[in-house]
Amino acid sequence: MQFQFSTSVHIIFGEGRSRELPDLVDRVGRRPFVVTGSSRDRHHDLLTNCQGASYSLSGEPSIENLGSALAQAREYKADCVVGVGGGSAIDLAKAVSAMLRNRGEIMDYIEVIGRGQTLDMGALPIIAVPTTAGTGAEVTQNAVLHSEEHKVKASLRHASMLPSIALVDPELTYGLPPKVTASTGLDAITQLIEVFLTKKANPLTDGLVREALPAAAKAIRCACEYGDNVKARRDMSLASLFSGMGLANSGLGAVHGFAGPLGGMIQIPHGTACAILLKHCLEANARAAQSSGELGLLSRFAELGEMILGPGGDIPSLVRWAEDITKELGIGRLSDFGFVEDQVEELVEKAGKASSMRGNPVKLSDDILTAIIHQAM
Fold first, then answer.
1. What residues form DSSP beta bridges with 157?
2. With contact defined as beta carbons under 8 Å apart, do 321 and 309 qualify?
């Protein structure tokens, strides 16, 4: 067995720890460029003593957003970048930090739709402060950007884009609306599941999943219903953090193979897309494992069932759980977000080329991928 593991240089976790942000910024630079989500005022107290130029992002980050933010950061002569918000704001912050030290064009470094070149210089120091519990972007080394021209999401990726400091304070997620809590939380849970099933799983990523997933499966309903519940919010923040650490070191699977292209084709929150697809991808993967007699993978499915449902949890009950939780939390279907039959073939083609699909534990044919999408509509 061989594996390696990389994560952020310094992870700080706990209620109230976000108040350390100004001191942490002073450790890494003097001219911080701050990227926030659209609701910057929500974190006014947090940012009051974190002085610097700033960029407020509305929605998910695009290549155009990166160009605009980068121009501002260069004019300001930023020497470090702070991302405060959900995965979108943190991803944009990571992309800005990378491009500030690299003078090539953005498309020189973007994967799939660009030239995919390695960055010439490492990124500037990054401090990531998540205010949702979903993507785990504070401990990943890529930034996902939407290309309007190509109708797809693609990544800018480099080891130096792992944040210098991941500052995770569950208090920053208190009061998030139930809809956002559900979408982001199911993204974290889906990531943990895919990290456990991926063909590139290793003992360290397995340990992260075994620690975080049972607690998150219990906590998500409570976090949605009681937004200030301390334990539920803590468990979901840990799930997000651990899922990010896991995916950065083992990859994902078919759910995220679909979710990336979907986000470029229709207006749908990333976590919502993952939640809609989870049941159908679990079912397809389990069926493929059963038909091919892959005992190791079937054993992993059985363990997932027990992690989420307790003793006696099996594959059928795991699939039912995935269906029930999305219904209970009001996630909906792909057609609710404007996805139509004419887009199925394009999505299957794009998903087949996605990097996450390569981590899926079994090979799924185009016919199976097509069936998954039809079931999710």
1. 142
2. yes
Measured CA to CA, the distance from residue 89 to residue 37 in angstroms comes to: 5
List alpha helices for the chain, DSSP H: 21-28, 44-47, 63-76, 87-99, 106-109, 178-197, 203-225, 230-250, 254-265, 270-292, 295-309, 315-328, 344-353, 366-376
Count of residues in the chain: 377
**Buried-exposed string 139-154: b where 16+ CB fall within 10 A, e elsewhere:** bbbbbbbbbeebbbbb
pLDDT at 140: 96
Q: How far apart are CA 233 and CA 224, in angstroms?
A: 9
List, run by run, the mean pLDDT of 10-residue segments along the chain (377 residues): 89 97 94 87 76 88 94 96 96 96 89 85 95 96 90 88 97 95 98 96 97 98 96 98 97 96 93 97 96 91 95 92 96 96 96 92 96 97
List, in sequence order, every residue forming a beta bridge with 35; answer none if it has no partner. Answer: 55, 83
What residues have CB less than 8 Å from 105, skipping those under 6 apart? none
Amino acid at 203: P
Sequence-distant (6+) residues with CB within 8 A of 372 are 254, 258, 277, 280, 281, 284, 364
Place of tokens 């800018």: 156
Diameter over CA atoms, the chain: 60
Q: What is the pLDDT of residue 201?
A: 96
Which DSSP letter does residue 62 get?
Answer: B
| Residues 238, 169 contacting (CB under 8 angstroms) | no
Q: Please give the Cα distance from 21 to 306 (Å, whole number).
A: 39
User: What would the DSSP string read from start to end of 94-148?
Assistant: HHHHHHTT--S-HHHH-SSSS--PPPSSPPPPEEEEESSSSS-GGG-SEEEEEET
CA–CA separation, 92 and 66 (whole Å)? 7
pLDDT at residue 72, rounded to an integer: 96
* Rounded distance between C-alpha atoms, residue 138 and residue 168, angstroms: 8
